[in-house]
Amino acid sequence: MKRVLLITALGLALLAGGCGEKQESVSGAASSVQQLTLMLDWFPNADHAGIYQALAEGDFAKAGLKVHVQVPSDPAAPLRLLAAAKVDAAISYEPELLLARNQGQALVSVAAIVQKPLTSIVSVGSKHITTPAQLRGKRVGNAGISYQHAYLTTILARAGVPASSVKEINVGADLVPAMLSGRVDATLGAFWNYEAIQLAMLKKHPNVIHMEQVGVPAYDELIVVVRKNTIVNHPDVVRRLVQALARGYEAVRNNPPAAVANLVHASPGLDPKLQLASVRATLPVFFPSNAANPWGWQDPKQWAAYGQWMLKEHLISSPNAVLDASTNELLAGQGLR
Fold first, then answer.
1. Which residues partner with 68 through β-bridges?
2. How does DSSP classify residue 326?
């Protein structure tokens, strides 16, 4: 899902400081250390722990890369700037990539950071909403994103609940405040590994309904995206980036507290307790369910099924948006070298 990001001075400073010549580095002259810019999808958080771990432990440097991490000032910016060659790689979401490709942007996902949907239906325990059927007559908040509406209608249809019986409310970034204030009965857009943990820490006993269990096809929530021509012209650079990230996320699995310490050191405003709880909750989906597959694996059948759902829901119109939208060829032990 596209997270809602408030513009911060930090984000603006990083964005302004990183949009110079170095963004074109992967198409520039060869050098001993390859400069590369990587834009996050949102402010630094537990989902990015492996990125900051790789930075702190020198995994990028060992791969011959100097990676400049940027924080977007606008949640719509990463793929737009990537398509415009203002950054070299971007963290994004499977549905956002398919929407961008539907608009003709030649972008490809080269690794999955999070292998399952994080977007969920979340409610405080006092609302007693544990199944989609219990949404009848309720107010459901979302962030105003088109595919979130489609998620909800898909879930309601499967549960036999008329969509007209549920009131959708766009609460923007205020997912947790909207639940705490009683403005909504539940939200579709909160992450089970973040907002639900926030509610649990507030002793609100949240209930979580995982979308892939109630009718929405599974998808990779967080992905690494590059331009198609970067894969064609510089596959070695992309391979080195992806494999350094793999080492970073493996280190997160081996020592979550150390990874969170590096994350918080890089972004001091974060709550260490929340980030550690979030990292621990997310660990299982940082890696493929089949241990025979390398970190970053993207299930082609899963991508095809989710793409077909987006076509069916008229979120995208071109089958080409789905065709070759992801590749595993640059992962450890896979094809392109």
1. 37
2. B
Sheet containing 65-70: which strands, arranged edge to edge? 65-70, 34-39, 89-92, 222-227, 107-114
As given in the structure block, the two tokens for residue 191 are: 């992450």
* CA angle, 165 then 194 then 266, to 5°: 150
The verdict on pTM exceeding 0.85 is yes
Rounded Cα gap, residues 336 and 239, in angstroms: 8
Please report the domains of the chain, with CATH numbers, ordered by start residue. Answer: 9-115+220-321 (3.40.190.10), 119-213 (3.40.190.10)
pLDDT of residue 26: 46
**Contacts of 58 by beta carbon, 8 Å cutoff, 6+ apart:** none
pLDDT at 14: 34
Kindly report the average pLDDT of the chain as a whole number. Answer: 91
The full DSSP string for 232-252 is HH-HHHHHHHHHHHHHHHHHH
Give the Cα separation of 268 and 270 in Å (integer): 5
Residue 34: its H or E element? strand 34-39
Going by DSSP bridges, is the β-strand pair 34-39/65-70 parallel, antiparallel, or unpaired?
parallel
How big is the chain, counted in residues? 337
